[in-house]
Amino acid sequence: MVRSVAVVLAAVLLFASAGAAPLATAGIGSDSAAPAVQSPVGAAESPSFSSTHFRIAVHPNGSATWTFQYRTQLENDTQRERFREYARSFEANETRFVEQFRANARSLVADGEGVTGREMNATNFERAAFTRGLSDDLGVVQLSFTWTNFARTDGERVVVGDLFDGGLYLGSNQRLVVTADPGLAFASVSPTPNATADPTLAASDSVTWFGPREFTDERPRAVLVPNDSVGAGEAGATTGSPSSTDDTDGDTGLPVALLGGLLALLAVGGVAYWRRERLAAALGGASDADASPAADASRDPDADAPPVGDPAVSDEEMLADDERVERLLREHGGRMRQASIVEETDWSKSKVSMLLSEMEADDRISRLRVGRENVVSLPGHEPTTGRDEE
């Protein structure tokens, strides 16, 4: 049985065909036969990309900007310099693999157009590689393009989800972020996201789901409306489980066979090279085990439903790492020393540093160097003096 996969998983393959060549061109990968995946920071340390972010920025006309971001921790000056060298090469060289990325994206969009009847195009291709964070300790590689008419429009409503036929799968260390353009607000989202930019959905400009997670048919789904149609905190702005029937329409979406054929097409363009260069893990793709029929059969069809309370599992254990950090910061008045976060979570310094770098890159926290310490703050709680207070 062909596995029903989602467009976001296809995005990993899209990047694979474009990402392998720049890595090799920059001379950063390893020529050894070791199974470990090499990343831009060099063969000596050989860390993999720590996380993969898929971002869909929804526009009022139904178009969406798709951005695929791959992140790696840079732990010293040597790694930072090697990554910068790689970034310059990645941005400067128009390789055949970047061209293949564009071709595969256009093929994907053409298939969506044929099924939905909406006129679609893949435009505005961009790529970038850069460092972020307090000490440039996060390396980011990204590719993006605009998918015109990605979402269905119904008057002033913009509805995302009809292309996710059969649902989609997010792997470990992956996340999907849907953002609303200025002027748009979320009216409803299903299933309930793991994180929102604001406590109330209507006031939030983004919703996020963390992997590993498998969504049900035509999920995730988001309905967006003009800002003045939904007030912050109103009952009209809701989240729901995968079984909710809010605004369900008759669109059939992309059938399983079409998506299966698309993945085969993408595989010809990039996966063979991708695997040969041992980049699969570094690019955050799902494993063969994840995609096997046996794995599908073992998946709970209600896996997206909100977890039922288990007295053996604490609320804190059910939080994602970044959510736990945000809770800690709120409990300490919005600001803590980075060393205190290490102590209270009992995580390693490197794990905390990497996590904070990613949160800082997403503008969820800020860090300020005070003496020999880093002060970590939630937005609006930044230190106003030179004293490092918790």
Written account of the structure:
The protein is an alpha+beta fold and 390 residues long. It folds into 2 domains: 7-276, no CATH class; 316-377, Winged helix-like DNA-binding domain superfamily/Winged helix DNA-binding domain (Arc Repressor Mutant, subunit A), CATH 1.10.10.10. 31% of the residues lie in helices and 24% in strands. It has a 7-stranded mixed sheet with strand order 3-4-2-1-8-11-10. A hairpin with a 5-residue loop joins strand 3 and strand 4. Helix 1 runs antiparallel to helix 3, helix 1 (7-25) packs parallel to helix 4 and helix 3 (96-116) packs antiparallel against helix 4 (256-276). The longest helix has 21 residues, at 96-116. It is globular. The chain starts with 6 loop residues before the first helix and ends in a 13-residue tail after the last strand. The model is unreliable at 1-47, 232-237, 241-313 and 386-390 (pLDDT under 50).
